[in-house]
Every structure is written in C-alpha cells, then in structure tokens.
Amino acid sequence: MVHRVFAKLRAISRSGERSDRASILLPFLIISIGLGALAWRSYVLSARMESGVQTLAMQYAGYSADITARRADAAIGNELNAAADEWQQDERRAGATSAALQDWIDNHDWMVFAIFIPDSDPTRSIFTSKPETSPAQSLQTREFSTSSGVVRYTYDPERLLNRIRDVLHQKPLMQSRELQPQAELTLVPTPKRPGVLRLADGYAFIAPLSPPLAAYAVRSSVHIAYGTQGWENARYMTVVVSLIAVILTALGAYLGLRGVKKEAETMRLRGALIANVSHELRTPLSMIRLGAETLQRGAKLSEAQRHEIQDSIHREALNLSHLVENVLDIARIHNRKAKAMAFTPVQPRDLVSTLVTTYESWIRSKGFQIALAIEDSVDEQLWDREAVSRALLNLIDNAVKYSAEDKTIGITLRQTESDVLLEVQDRGIGISAHDLEHVFEPYFRAQFSDTQTRRGAGLGLTLVHQIVTSHGGRVEVESAPGAGSTFRLAFPRNRSRETGPIPAFEELPQAF
C-alpha cells in the first residue's frame, strides 16, 4: 500500500498536476504521524530501558564476582603449589637444612614460620620463623609431604591475598568506552549472608573464596549511572528528538524530489553500464573457453596451431584482465573511494615498452600497429607504476575503439624542462570542439553516432584524468572530427614523494 502511495505521488510530481509543495505535504504528514507514534513508544520504552539496565547491572555484578572468585582460588592454589614444589626442589638439591628452610620462607613473604619433620627421625626436626607481624588468630597452617618428611608451615592470609591482587584488575569482559557497565572488584571479609546487595547507585555481589581462604570474599560493585545518566529525561528527550526529526524529514522530502528527477537518468546509466560490462566480459571468456576446449579435444593439432590457440588465450586473458581492472576502478568511483597512490622510482621508457610488449598481441589482433617514439634521455620519475600504466592502457583502448580505416596508434614519450610528456595519437573519428570540454566528465560520451554504437561507459577518460591529477599533472587534448585525437599526459618532473590519494569525484551519479 505504501509503495502504491509513493508511486502515485511520483506520478503526480512528473505530470505536474500539483506543485512541489503539495507533493511534499502528504508524505511529510505521514512521516510526522509516524514520528509521533515513535515518540510515544520511546517514552514508554525509556522506563523499560531503565529497568533493564538495573537487571543487567545486578547480573553483571554476580557474574564478575563469581568469575573473579574462581580466578582468585586458582591463583591461590597455584601460589601454594609453587611454594611446595620449590621446597621439594631445594630439598633434593641441597638437602633439608635449617638454612635451606630459612631461605625458603624468606622467599615467600606470606609465610610466618615453618617446620620440617623427617620421616627417619622426627626428633631431628628443623624449625625456622620470621618476626611475626600479624595477629595469631588470623594465621593459618598448612602442610605437605616430601620424599623424606613432612613440611608444616604457618602463613598470613592477608599477605597471601596481596600476592594475587592482580586478579582484581582482570575484568571478566573487555574494557572499552562502549562496553558498560564496569565492575569495581575488591577483597573483603566474607559476611554472614553473601550474595546480591542493593546499593544507592547500583548493585553489589559478594562471592566467597574457597578453602583455605573461605573467610574472604570478592565483592563486585556495578554502578548504574551509565544506564540513567543522560537518560533520566528520556521521556522529554524523545519529544525534542522527534521535532528535530520532523524538520530533517521536511528537508529530506525536498532533497528527495531532486533525487527523483535524477532517478530515470540513473536507471538508464545503470542498465547501459551493466549491459556494456556483461558484453565485454562475455567475449573474452567465450574465446578463452573455446580455445581451451579446442586444445583439450584437438589431439591432431599441429604445433603451429597449438601455439596460435595458446597465443589467442593469452591475448584474451590480458584483455579480460584489463576489463576487470576497469570494472574495479568504476566500482571505486561509484563508491567514491579514493585509491591511494604507491609512488616508486619508475623509468618511463621501461614502463611504456613493457606495456606495449605485454599488450602487443592483443593490439595486433585488432588490426592495429603501434608506432613508438621514445626519447632515451627521459629521467627516472616518482610515479605509481600501476596507475600510470592503467591510464596509458585506457588511452590505447580508446584509440582502438574509435579508430576507423587508418589503424595506426602513435605513442610518444619525451620530456621538457618542466614536464614528462606521454602522448597517444590515433587517426580515428575525432572529437568536436564542444565535446572536448566534457570528455573527462563521468559517463560523458560524444554525441557522434559512431561513439554511441561502440562499447564503453564513459568512464575511461575520467579515470585517466583522475590518475594524472593525483600525480600533480594535467591532461591535454587535441582533436577534430575525422582527423583523429592526440591525448597528452603531462607529468611534472622530479615529483615529490609527499603525495596523497586520488581526489574523489563530486556529484557522481550512482549507477550501480
């Protein structure tokens, strides 16, 4: 139903039966009513949200206290076991002596005194101690057996807990500004009734430790200021936000009318672009598949025929690679994503020669000849090799597409005092003076009938201009109808390394 309403409004807007003001009014009223209902619903849900935050705080307090208590129990057990293992190693290495026992308790600040009772003669027991600093009633005793006797020691639980206090800083969940609430963890004496406690500004949960430190517990406090701060007045905030939303909706309706006017053009561009891409990708894929099937089934093919088929597959693969790169570049344009330049030292002579050699087979398959004119004195430049190669290949592709009977493409590389010039010249259909002003605009194609019947989306020269601009250069065009075209890429010499990404396009229709 909503779709039909908006379709009718669109039809009214196109037919001109009503003014733009009347076209905006009805959807504006519908959205305003919806925002009013949303404000009322938000008003009700704000109370539920506060209740949910309190429940979450209580559950998180219990969870963090329980997890931390388990970690503390494990850390205490590890400390006790490590002390026992250390004595047994000392006993095996140096024997059970008074000095060894004294060193052992000195290495553990939480021990107070210890006694070693040998199995062979209990009367030869060894005893050692530290100056006692803790009340006797708070001390605890523990013993363990060794290979030659029994060790019994007394320790201070408070000191032992100090050894594992780092556990309190290990939150059960990752800490971040977005993840709330946060728990405050402390060690406290175990109360008579552990469990959940209601605080003035939140909840606390007390989880007792396991023996031998059952007299202590982990207390986790969670404050719910996060859940209410900034939300106590949510019932009034929703009204203000709704009014702002109505104003923004009115602005959006105005902008929407402008967007509807461009919709038809966008749909046409989308259809043409998809058709062009599908057609161009299908042709090389078909040739590659045909060549592969011929090689697979052609047991009687001669070596020359196999070489010719392999060359054809390689040529079409290069063509396919070029098409895919163009499609990716087009996708980046549609998404308005700037591709970062990777500037490296490049020999322009090598770049041009390598590109022509790589695509020579594909160019010759189209019936074209390349006339190269490269100056040996061109200096090394700081370019993005892949981007400049892409720009040159797009110019060659355009020369192939828009040439007529004379199938000669001239490529010239030279330098002046200030620039390195890279020229691509064809003898094709040319471009009129009026169209020269727009050839670098996205989706623009000259209005000659010959250009409209050829493949393309009108983005190749846009990409070329973008790449050259990112290098701080410029693109010059000389052309006349029926006389061919010369595209000249002028790159400044000794390009600085301080360069940025390709500038993004503005006001680009979204055809994808």
What are the salient characteristics of this protein?
alpha+beta; 12 helices; disordered C terminus; four-stranded antiparallel sheet; 512 residues
Care to describe what's here?
Helix content is 51%, strand content 19%. The protein is an alpha+beta fold. The strands form 4 sheets. A 5-stranded mixed β-sheet has the order 10-12-13-15-14, covered by helices on one side. It has a 4-stranded antiparallel β-sheet with strand order 2-1-4-3. Helix 2 (20-94) crosses helix 6, helix 6 runs antiparallel to helix 7 (303-334) and helix 9 packs antiparallel against helix 12 (460-470). The longest helix is centred in the first third of the chain and has 75 residues, at 20-94. It is elongated, with a radius of gyration of 40 Å.
Brief digest:
The protein has helices at about 1-15, 20-95, 100-105, 155-165, 225-230, 235-295, 305-335, 350-365, 385-400, 435, 450, 460-470, and strands at about 110-120, 125-130, 140-145, 150-155, 185-190, 195-200, 200-210, 215-225, 345, 370-375, 380-385, 410-415, 420-425, 475-480, 485-490.
Helix content: 40-55%
State the helix count.
Answer: 12
Radius of gyration: 40 Å
Shape verdict: elongated
Task: Tell me about the largest β-sheet.
Answer: 5 strands, mixed
Strand order of the largest sheet: 10-12-13-15-14
For the termini, the CA-CA separation is 27 Å
Strand tally: 15
Q: Structural class from helices and strands?
A: alpha+beta
